[in-house]
Amino acid sequence: MIIDAHSHLGKCRIYGNEVTEENLINTMDKNEVRSAIVQPFPGVSDATAVHNQIAELTQKHPGRIFGMVSLNPYININTYRAETLRCIRELGFVAIKLHPAAHAVSPLSDTAMMVFELANELDIPIMVHTGAGTPFALPALCIPAARQYPNLRIILAHAGFAIYTPEAYVVAKECENVFLETSWCLGEDIAWLVNSIGAERVMIGSDLPSNLPVEITKYRTLDLENDQLKQCLYYTAKYVFKLKI
């Protein structure tokens, strides 16, 4: 079975991407994906509206779609907190996203630390975009938060995005509460991460429906042990997001 740890819904004004419900579900079906963690793009015009659409999908496809909160952290802090609490406590979302590149927020800033603190308070994982969009998207910038909140599960989205994958490796090596989602990474680097950090710290993600079959093919052609493959494709995400499936 497969859990796609990094998926989107809606239209992104920053990167020009768009994913519809039909596109999302059809791609999951075609590639035999059991479940997906779905978040708004960072550039949606109305994140709350997309959160509501994702919530509708979780009801329409129970056990297949799980929501992740994604908001611009520069909005009013009370508004940010209220929407996050609504998504987690009322809509059943399972994580928060921080996008240093698209929202121009350093993981070292007070604004970002507010998001880390909230995730820690709610006992939910936080996914942080890494790689493209440096300097804010450098994986190493998550180390202070990982050390300040040792029980917080931090997921480095894209695991450094290929060029910064070695840095993501160092972060995960130094911080046991850091996990790596590997969309857009090189296949040989994924194998290296699995064998050096451990399969229980690595998970598959697609980022875009068009990339989903590519990411699955990477894992299935890496000569991983069967237990390692199952862990990366399914069990790591199930554990990190505490999915009841």
Task: Write up this protein.
- It is a single chain.
- The chain is α/β, with parallel strands linked by helices.
- The protein has nine helices and nine strands.
- The chain has a nine-stranded mixed β-sheet, sandwiched between helices.
- The N and C termini lie close together (11 Å).
- The mean pLDDT is 97.
β content, as a range?
15-25%
Number of helices: 9
Average predicted confidence as pLDDT? 97
Unreliably modeled segments: none
- For the terminal residues, how far apart are their CA atoms? 11 Å
Structural class: alpha/beta
- Cross-sheet strand order for the largest sheet: 2-1-3-4-5-6-7-8-9
Number of strands: 9
Any idea what the shape is?
A: globular
The residue fraction in helices comes out at 40-55%
- Biggest β-sheet, characterized? 9 strands, mixed
Cα-based radius of gyration, to the nearest Å: 16 Å
Q: How is this fold's topology laid out?
A:
Blueprint: E1 3-11, E2 18-19, H1 21-30, E3 35-40, H2 47-60, E4 65-70, H3 77-90, E5 95-98, H4 110-122, E6 126-129, H5 143-148, E7 154-157, H6 165-174, E8 178-181, H7 187-197, E9 202-203, H8 212-220, H9 226-240
Parallel strand pairs: 1-3, 3-4, 4-5, 5-6, 6-7, 7-8, 8-9
Antiparallel strand pairs: 1-2
Report a brief summary of the structure.
With 245 residues, the chain is an alpha/beta fold. The chain is built from 9 helices and 9 strands. The longest helix has 15 residues.
